[in-house]
Write a structure and sequence with these properties.
With about 280 residues, this protein is mostly helical. The chain has helices at about 5-20, 25-35, 40-60, 60-75, 80-110, 115-145, 155-170, 175-185, 190-200, 205-215, 220-225, 225-255, 260-275.
Length: about 280
């Protein structure tokens, strides 16, 4: 892998990780187009770690407040405000979703082989369907309640279970993690702002878990990807990811995620033709 290829893959990862278009699917297609058949999965995981830093930077205030609340909680101190109580429920939801995602991720990695690009394209169609269905149902729910100023509440346990399941579905080839997680949150009537925020914060333990599972292949990766090549790819992923995340959060507030289906559907069809 050349430095230019690594930077291009990093930019692609940064954009596709946050926009609901499947970063893993786009990376697989790009690697196929570049003829990079020997790139270890750990390289993709490192790019995910770079975009994870973008999540931490963007949501730094929320993450810091959650950490402070968690520290008070484990010292058996009572919640002092409604916001602290909401943050405790947020933490519980993240734990529940992470457990479900972890189980599904481990199971799928053992029973699902490395699939071809055509399966990735099929995943694009699944993501498109999720985005459209969740948008239609969410707008219908808003119309039924006649209230467009949604109250922001953390997911309850049932909602967290479903969101965790949808995030697990997002580990499959071509299915967007952010798209499936946000769609899952909207389908179980979580407000838009919380759905976007929760989707990315709950990705933190999921990405760290994937890194731990793949870290054993670090020596193998060093044989095909140099340290400088990896570093520049990660920097590109971080920068592109931060701006893509800021852009997506604005779109979530406007309820425009289904528009990405108009990109994914023709890309999937083109992929079926080419590959």
């Amino acid at each position: 892998m050349t430095i230019v290829q690594s930077i291009l893959l990093g930019i692609l990862q940064g954009i596709a990780e946050f926009l609901p278009i499947s970063s893993s699917g786009h990376l697989k297609i790009a690697q196929a187009l570049f003829g990079l058949s020997d790139v270890p999965l750990l390289f993709d995981v490192f790019l995910h770690l770079a975009t994870l830093l973008a999540v931490v930077l963007y949501f730094r205030k929320k993450i810091l407040s959650l950490l402070l609340v968690f520290c008070r909680w484990i010292t058996l101190k009572k919640a002092q405000s409604e916001d602290e109580e909401k943050n405790r429920r947020f933490i519980i939801a993240v734990i529940v979703s992470t457990i479900i995602t972890g189980v599904l991720g481990i199971v799928s990695s053992k029973i699902i082989p490395d699939l071809s690009v055509k399966y990735v394209c099929a995943g694009f169609l699944v993501t498109s369907a999720l985005l459209i269905i969740s948008a239609v149902l969410e707008k219908r729910n808003l119309a039924a309640t006649k209230n467009n100023s949604e109250e922001q509440n953390p997911p309850n346990v049932k909602q967290a279970l479903f969101i965790g399941f949808m995030q697990g579905v997002g580990t499959l080839p071509g299915i967007s993690r952010s798209g499936s997680t946000i769609a899952g949150a909207l389908l179980c009537k979580v407000d838009r702002q919380t759905a976007g925020e929760y989707s990315f914060i709950v990705s933190i333990p999921a990405i760290l878990g994937a890194f731990v599972l793949e870290a054993k292949d670090l020596g193998e990766m060093s044989e095909s990807v140099s340290a400088l090549t990896l570093l520049l790819g990660c920097v590109a992923a971080f920068v592109a990811g931060f701006f893509a995340l800021a852009f997506l959060m604005k779109l979530i507030k406007k309820g425009k995620l289904e528009y990405f289906a108009f990109y994914l559907i023709p890309v999937a069809i083109l992929g079926f033709i080419i590959f």
